[in-house]
Design brief:
Layout: E1 9-13, E2 25-32, E3 35-43, H1 62-76, E4 84-89, H2 101-110, E5 115-117, E6 132-137, E7 140-148, E8 163-170, E9 187-192
Parallel strand pairs: 3-4
Antiparallel strand pairs: 1-2, 2-3, 4-6, 5-6, 7-8, 8-9
Helix pairs in contact: 1-2
């Protein structure tokens, strides 16, 4: 998992919780046009992780559920109640399509109520839901979500995921999310991209 910002990062955490496998979680705080922002990036193991490949010592959904259990503990910490974005490869559609009901419930239970989902249902320009998602605190609003092609200009496949481009704006006291702000151009663009 990689998070990138033009500004330096503080409070970097690449462990999160002892139950999370290495390389699948990173968080930090950076300064943006929207102010200080805590970013949490995740790559939840796919349902067949270490079942028929890799270590071959897991049951289907086992690593996925263990990761979500650890993530739940991380997200429950008080320090994440400030302006926050959680994003990454969740390996589940929202609303549920193929995941067992229990796995979907563990996912929804892991996400605290102060985070709002921006990527539910069919993604515009893609016409289908994604397994990559973004949640944000209530002081932010996703004003545009669109899909980017999973292939390069030459037609070569870049990823088995469709990248998402999400524009985020600050919500004003009246509930609107526009350009009216004390910070000119207060908008943040977030992209998910997975390369093989």
């Amino acid at each position: 998992m990689l998070l990138w910002s033009r500004q330096p990062w503080t409070g970097i955490d690449d462990l999160g919780d002892g139950r999370l496998p290495s390389g699948r979680f990173v968080s930090g705080t950076t300064e943006t046009k929207l102010g200080s922002l805590r970013m949490i990036g995740v790559c939840v193991p796919w349902p067949g992780a270490h079942v028929a490949t890799g270590r071959k010592d897991r049951r289907r959904w086992e690593d996925h559920l263990a990761f979500l259990g650890g993530l739940s503990g991380v997200l429950a910490r008080h320090e994440h109640t400030g302006r926050t974005i959680l994003l990454g490869d969740v390996n589940q559609f929202i609303p549920r399509r193929r995941a067992p009901l229990r796995a979907f419930q563990v996912l929804t239970d892991a996400i605290p109520p102060f985070l709002r989902l921006a990527t539910e249902g069919a993604i515009p320009e893609f016409g289908r839901p994604s397994i990559d998602h973004l949640w944000h605190t209530m002081d932010l609003r996703a004003v545009r979500v669109r899909a980017l092609p999973g292939h390069g200009p030459d037609g070569r496949t870049l990823s088995d995921h469709v990248s998402l481009f999400i524009e985020i704006r600050q919500v004003h006291e009246d509930g609107s999310a526009g350009k009216r702000t004390d910070r000119p151009g207060a908008m943040l663009s977030v992209s998910t991209s997975y390369r093989r």
